[in-house]
Amino acid sequence: MPASRFLADYWQRHPLLVRGAFAPWDDPLTPEDLAGLACEELALARLIRLDRERDDWQVEQGPFEEDRFPGLPDHDWTLLVQDVDKWDPDVAALLGPFGFLPRWRLDDVMVSFAARGGSVGAHTDHYDVFLIQGRGRRRWQIDARADAAQAMREGQALKLLQRFDPSHDWVLEPGDMLYLPPEVPHFGEALDACMTFSVGLRAPSDAELLADLADQLAQDEDGSRRYADPGRPPARDPGLVDDDAIARLRERLRNMVELDDEALATWFGGMITRYRSPGLAAAPPRKLGEAQLLQRLQRGDRLRPHPFARLAWVRHGRAALAFADGESLPCDRSGASRLCSGEPLALADYEALSPAARTLAREWLNAGKLVIERERGAG
Predict the structure, then answer these.
(1) 3-201 CATH pick, 3.30.310.50, 3.90.180.10, 2.60.120.650, 3.40.50.1580
(2) What are phi and psi of 320, to 5 degrees?
(3) pTM for this one?
């Protein structure tokens, strides 16, 4: 299926099951690898267990001790780890086929291992997700009807649906993929020990967008502009906030957020590259100049984005603003596009950049947003 057809017919409209989407399948990491990552201090991990007799769900937050997993039963539990693509390049490679989506929309690859019967219950997500089946089999039930129930159960550690009536029922084999638009109720259960690789999208809520925009507007405001009501008639009721006041307020608020396209893009570029960023891209202990960087590239090393850095760019007049984790620097459009593509830069790629883009690359390198990838086999 061409990407254009998927985006026109299914994207944020309808679920889609793709048999053999990643066939032949080979797990990019093992359950033992995932358990080891869940023990790392900076990993975002959860262990979810189901007591079937009591219909009760328990959630433990990582990081975990290494002896936590050997004693678990062979059924009814799931280990989930977020941002695994930031830790494992083979998992990150799963994002390659999703290049038809803007890179700033892709959030992470969450990996789960589930024992037989393992699940996280019937729920909805507020964002698009591609569920790639790894080893084992998982049964997925979804409710694709427009009027699907959304009420939540009370007294549970997870946000679970109060009622779930599936309209579709599928068993996914290794390499199969299920796409789910936002808010589609779904329930997945491991038929045997299995792994699932979930490609999630970034989707800030209206509340998050408004709060961030309000913060930006407040930073730009010196407090001199205030509510005003010239020409207003005498108040008939001194305690009433009348219709005229509400109309003035509505117009004032509209004017506050009436940003031109360039100003709106500049704000959003910063917001979306900060969104859900854990801030793990730190400056290196030593800065590199142009000559030192060229020397590293000449011996086969490459520049690539730090796994946790979020990069994007916007048009700014005839040039561009390039964003890394919310901070912007000027650049030419071609250079900003290349540096924010997520692809590594070898010597020839770096030499093809404009002087402005080279300066940006060095700035990002010395801020930790780009890192030097050693040539394979180099000491």
Answers:
(1) 2.60.120.650
(2) -150, 160
(3) 0.92
pLDDT in tens, 286-305: 999 999 999 999 999 999 99
Taking only the tens place, the pLDDT of each residue in 99-115 is: 999 999 999 999 999 99
Residues 6+ apart with CB under 8 A from 115: 72, 73, 74, 75, 76, 77, 78, 190, 193
Q: Does domain 290-373 sit in CATH 3.40.366.30? A: yes
- pLDDT over 80 (residue 134): yes
As a whole number of angstroms, the distance between CA 207 and CA 102 comes to: 22
Q: What is the pLDDT of residue 378?
A: 47
How buried is 122 (Cβ within 10 angstroms: 0-12 exposed, 13-18 middle, 19+ buried)? buried
- 257-289 residue pLDDT tens: 889 999 999 999 999 999 988 888 889 999 999
Instruction: Give me the residue spans of the domains in the chain.
Output: 3-201, 206-219+242-258, 290-373
Question: Do 43 and 79 touch, CB atoms closer than 8 A?
Answer: no
Residue 35 token pair? 């358990």
Does residue 310 carry a pLDDT above 50?
A: yes
pLDDT score at 168: 97
Instruction: Tell me the percentage of the chain whose pLDDT exceeds 90.
Output: 87
CA 129, 306, 94, 313 torsion-angle sign: positive
